[in-house]
């Protein structure tokens, strides 16, 4: 019991120190529009100058911009209030007030914006440089120049600026990858990612070594490539909050292929696969519609005869391959399977 408590405390500290932030909630307040001007032309030798009040400036927007230069929402973690500037007042001579300065939030690709009150999805950022207005600034008021007419030649009024909008927003990151690795802790997911890509996830001989998702670009036959995502291990009951729960499962919702990994020394390969499938279904039944592959890891400990015997335990209908990340056994065949699945989908 003491050892389990010690491990739990260690994992908690590691997660607290992590720089991977995939969820932030903040108050977004756009700028109010500037008021229009009530002004009359005053010049020498012009005894009856008419109205010439200018319009107020637009209030600043809150804008979300996609960038490839950041990959988490860490820089927004401590921003509880994001406020844009108000527009300036209009002036005489039909001069329009300056617009309020926009507040631009740079986010990684794969970020989704939601209304915190209703949970409604507003938009998602998928391209570098893509900009979307999150909270629109108030319109500037019209100056009295707009209200002159044949029957009202000297209007002594103008419009006030429109109020800005204040709302609570959630930004949620879902990593963009072609393949998502799914498996129990210590199934060899991080070892595989480090073997076939330049990613260097933390690897250890204890459960939950991976506490945050990792991305790796996998080269394939020349100059082709695909992106693989490694998420923390799932255990039975994850959908009810056990282990690391379902905190990181959102990162495989965007993957076109799910690569299930079960170690060759598992007591029952089919049962482990069934449990993993069940946890995904509890989280989001739509995940079961994705193409699935199965890799039986740590196969360097098996001989050909044992592999043939274990083939009987493999679930039917799922393309599978026995691999070893350490000895590089069958990794090229695994890449072929993944590449084929990507382009068939």
Automatic annotation (TrEMBL):
GO BP? ribosome biogenesis
Q: Which GO terms describe its cellular component?
A: cytoplasm
Q: Which InterPro entries match?
A: G_OBG, GTP-bd, GTP-bd_Obg/CgtA, GTP1-OBG_CS, GTP1_OBG_dom, GTP1_OBG_dom_sf, OBG_GTPase, P-loop_NTPase
Record keywords, A-Z:
Cytoplasm, GTP-binding, Hydrolase, Magnesium, Metal-binding, Nucleotide-binding
Positions binding GTP in this chain are 183-190, 208-212, 230-233, 297-300, 324-326
Principal place of residence: cytoplasm
Q: Which residues bind Mg(2+)?
A: 190, 210
**What's the EC number here?**
3.6.5.-
All copies of the OBG-type G domain together span 177-343
**Gene3D superfamilies registered for this protein in UniProt:** GTP1/OBG domain, P-loop containing nucleotide triphosphate hydrolases
Subunit organization: Monomer.
Q: What is this protein called?
A: GTPase Obg
- Could you tell me which species this protein originates from? Algoriphagus chordae
């Amino acid at each position: 019991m003491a050892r389990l408590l010690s491990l739990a405390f260690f994992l908690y500290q590691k997660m607290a120190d992590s720089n991977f932030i995939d969820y932030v909630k903040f108050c977004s307040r756009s700028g109010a529009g500037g008021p229009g001007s009530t002004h009359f032309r005053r010049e020498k030798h012009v005894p009856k100058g008419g109205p010439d009040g200018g319009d107020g400036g637009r209030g600043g927007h809150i804008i979300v911009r996609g960038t490839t230069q950041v990959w988490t929402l860490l820089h927004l973690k401590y921003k509880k209030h994001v406020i844009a500037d108000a527009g300036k007042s209009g002036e005489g001579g039909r001069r329009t007030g300056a617009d309020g300065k926009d507040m631009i939030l740079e986010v990684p690709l794969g970020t989704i914006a939601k209304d915190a009150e209703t949970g409604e999805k507003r938009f998602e950022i998928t391209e570098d440089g893509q900009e979307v207005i999150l909270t629109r600034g108030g319109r500037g008021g019209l100056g009295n120049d707009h209200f002159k007419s044949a029957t009202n030649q000297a209007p002594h009024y103008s419009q006030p600026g429109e109020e800005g909008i204040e709302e609570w927003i959630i930004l949620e990151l879902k990593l963009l990858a072609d393949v998502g690795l799914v498996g129990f802790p210590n199934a060899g997911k991080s070892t595989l990612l480090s073997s076939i890509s330049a990613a260097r996830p933390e690897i250890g001989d204890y459960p939950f070594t991976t506490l945050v998702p990792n991305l790796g670009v996998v080269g394939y036959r020349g100059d082709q490539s695909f992106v693989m995502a490694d998420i923390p291990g799932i255990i039975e009951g994850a959908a009810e909050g056990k282990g690391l729960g379902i905190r990181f499962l959102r990162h495989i919702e965007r993957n076109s292929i799910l690569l299930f990994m079960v170690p060759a020394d598992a007591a029952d390969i089919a049962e482990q696969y069934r449990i993993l499938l069940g946890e995904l279904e509890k989280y989001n039944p739509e995940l079961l519609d994705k193409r699935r592959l199965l890799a039986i890891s740590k196969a360097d400990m098996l001989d050909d005869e044992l592999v043939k015997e274990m083939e009987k335990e493999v679930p039917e209908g799922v393309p599978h391959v026995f691999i070893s990340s350490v000895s590089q056994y069958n990794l090229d065949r695994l890449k072929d399977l993944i590449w084929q699945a990507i382009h068939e989908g």
